[in-house]
Design goal:
about 375 residues; 3 domains; four-stranded mixed beta sheet; 17 helices; 6 strands; about 50% helix; about 5% strand; globular
């Protein structure tokens, strides 16, 4: 039986999903010519083929019968470096933002039920407040020193995530859409986003990015929360967006204070000879050091791009062996604070286990064991 659907919706759905006709045809189990014929209105797909088309382009089946494509607004402000393009989010990014918003909504309701009214650090400053004031405030609230005394950048990152969550800010980290390994997130599209909220702010880190870059992204997005501004970021040095410039400056100054950085830099014939000492001193990655050196004009844009390009290539070529256990990985995806709140509600009988499972990605019958091993209760 043929499906009497709108060909315009087919074209819109495939374009929105950023899937080639050939790839989609292979997924549906038909010829590419058939997909193109359906989109041109020359042929009609069968009912089952139409259902498969909707499934693989990630739209509700009923959309195929609409008279025209629905208008979709960007769920968060686009703060990325534009380079002359129109603001556009991939379907993977849109779905990730919606996924995070759903969990933010639940956590906000839970906080209200616990008697919380406001998170005091959200919107504490604005872009006119000045970088030093914001950096000092973040340092005070996170109880961190100008220059950490020990640990590498991985240790520092973990410590900062814990401190940020202790302030009531959810930190979510993922490289795929929800738990779907066939839908990876693109670091070329975004590095992170911030969802400012008076009660339940959220930071999301795209872990498809190099581990070395995530520390800067974390503090960049935290600065967004501090000034009460939501948005999707790529944290590029050459941005012209006022908020992005400000948050870049906050992150850079917090991680590598200007006075100390300038006084320690040496004009070696090969600038990278500075890196070992600087990474030990500031306990941040070589990526962060290179970025700061670029800001101060110690290295050129070409040198920076070449260095970072090598880091990205090495990260992509690196083996994926040694991944953490699924339960620990999932805790990082949804944030430990959210996982604790959801699990406690389920274990106390105030929430169905299947609803808890949907929010934190742990099977219902494993939530009790997960809570003991990963959450400490």
């Amino acid at each position: 039986m043929e499906a009497l659907i709108n060909p315009e919706i087919l074209r819109w759905a495939r374009s929105r999903a950023r899937i080639s006709a050939g790839t989609l045809a292979k997924s549906i189990g038909t010829a590419e010519d058939n997909v193109l014929a359906w989109e041109d209105g020359v042929k009609r797909p069968s009912f089952n083929q139409a259902m498969n088309y909707a499934h693989h382009t990630h739209i509700p089946f009923g959309y195929l019968y609409l008279a025209k494509p629905p208008v979709e607004e960007l769920p968060l402000p686009d703060l990325r470096t534009v380079n002359g393009r129109e603001p556009s989010y991939s379907l993977a990014l849109r779905d990730t933002i919606r996924w995070a918003m759903e969990r933010q909504d639940w956590y906000r309701s839970w906080l209200l039920s616990q008697g919380y009214e406001r998170n005091e650090v959200v919107g504490l400053f604005n872009v006119s407040s000045g970088v030093p004031a914001v950096v000092a405030s973040i340092r005070k609230n996170l109880r961190i020193e100008d220059m950490p005394k020990r640990g590498n950048f991985d240790d520092y990152f973990s410590k900062l995530v814990q401190g940020i969550e202790n302030l009531g800010i959810l930190v979510m980290r993922n490289s795929i859409v929800n738990n779907n390994t066939s839908r990876p997130l693109s670091v070329e599209e975004f590095r992170g986003f911030a969802m400012s909220d008076a009660l339940a702010p959220v930071i999301f880190i795209n872990t498809a990015d190099c581990p070395e870059a995530r520390l800067f992204t974390l503090i960049h997005e935290l600065a967004h929360i501090w000034i009460g501004k939501s948005g999707v970021s790529d944290a590029e040095p050459q941005t012209h967006n006022r908020e992005e410039i400000f948050c870049n400056a906050v992150a850079a100054e917090l991680l590598t204070p200007e006075r100390e950085f300038r006084s320690l830099w040496r004009d070696f014939e090969v600038w990278t000879e500075n890196l070992p000492y600087f990474t030990r001193t500031f306990h941040v990655s070589e990526w962060v050091i290179a970025r700061r050196a670029l800001t101060f004009g110690f290295i050129s844009q070409e040198e920076y791009r070449s260095f970072i390009g090598g880091k990205i290539a090495a990260h992509k070529a690196r083996s994926k062996d040694g991944a953490p256990p699924y339960s620990r990985l999932q805790t990082g995806r949804v944030s430990k604070s959210l996982a604790k709140a959801v699990a406690s509600e389920a274990l106390s009988g105030r929430m169905l286990f299947r609803d808890a499972s949907r929010l934190i990605g742990i099977k219902p019958h494993k939530i009790s064991d997960y809570s003991k091993k990963e959450l400490g209760f």
